[in-house]
Amino acid sequence: MIDWLDDTQPPKFPKTSQALNDPNGLLAAGGCLSPLWLDEAYRNGVFPWNDPDEVRLWWSPAPRAVITRDSFRISRTVRKLIKRLNKQTITLNQAFDQVIDSCAEPRDYQQGTWIDEDILHHYKQLRLNGRALSIEHWSCDGELIGGCYGVVKGAVFFGESMFSREPNASKIAFAVAAPALFNAGIQLIDCQMHTDHLAQFGAQEIDRHHFETLLQQHTQLATSLKLPTVIDIAKYKQ
Q1: How many whole angstroms separate alpha carbon 212 and alpha carbon 208?
Q2: pLDDT in tens, the chain (238 residues)
Q3: Could you check whether the bond before residue 23 is cis, i.e. omega within 30 degrees of 0?
Q4: Omega into 63 within 30° of 0, i.e. cis?
């Protein structure tokens, strides 16, 4: 059994140690997606995920996949992809709405999407409040071909979703943008669950206690991120 969250009350989540082992990380249901609820969720390492026709579900899986400044790396394969770029551009926070709308589009291998209208509305509000961030990959013709978005709290970037309209577009965007995030003050990138895709960038699994210790340390940092709007790709081609 999991707790039901009353959206008429101030946001309060159960202790993450109560999350189920099967399915891994399921913590609670109900609540809402207002900025206040989302702030409280991410501060505790909790995030929403469910099919649009389900009740709102909240998750805190363990172990947790994270990338730190020390663990981050760009694989040889990805570096080769970057060196082949020709007049393409990687930007930060220049088209958040386009990125999250693109992430919400059904994929060829999926029948639907978990990013519903409620998520689109509230995460766009987070962006307006400076608490969400997007990474964009533009073609040489100025078309958005890939990217990702997530939530920023303190010095933590919580990655949420990515999309690609051309092969490896989101992979290249993240590889180029992650160092800029670290240089701007981000200390931890939360990847939620470990995948082979994320392992290419140094994602490592850590236990719940370690993850929440890092969260407590880094989400409380008063970080004013000074992010570039356009990232210089040339240094990755050397």
Answers
A1: 6
A2: 899 999 999 999 999 999 999 999 999 999 999 999 999 999 999 999 998 889 999 999 999 999 999 999 999 999 999 998 888 999 999 999 999 999 999 766 555 578 999 999 999 999 999 999 999 999 999 999 999 999 999 999 999 999 999 999 999 999 999 999 999 999 999 999 998 889 999 999 999 999 999 999 999 876 678 889 999 887 776 6
A3: yes
A4: yes
Q: Which residues contact 197 (CB under 8 A, 6 or more apart)?
A: 171
**CA quadruple 166, 170, 172, 176: dihedral, nearest 10:** 150
Q: For 157, list phi and psi in degrees, rounded to 5.
A: -105, 120
**Phi, psi values for residue 197, rounded to 5°:** -60, -45
| Model confidence, pTM | 0.94
Interacting residues of 117 by C-beta distance below 8 A, sequence separation 6+? none
User: Sheet holding 57-59: strands in order across?
Assistant: 3-5, 26-30, 57-59, 47-48
Spacing of C-alpha 75 from chain mean position: 20
- Reduced to 3 states (helix: H, G, I; strand: E, B; else coil), residue 223 is coil
Euclidean distance between CA atoms 105 and 126, whole angstroms: 20
Helix (H) or strand (E) holding 81: helix 76-83
Q: Describe the crossing of helices 117-128 and 96-104 by its angle, rounded to 10 degrees.
A: 160
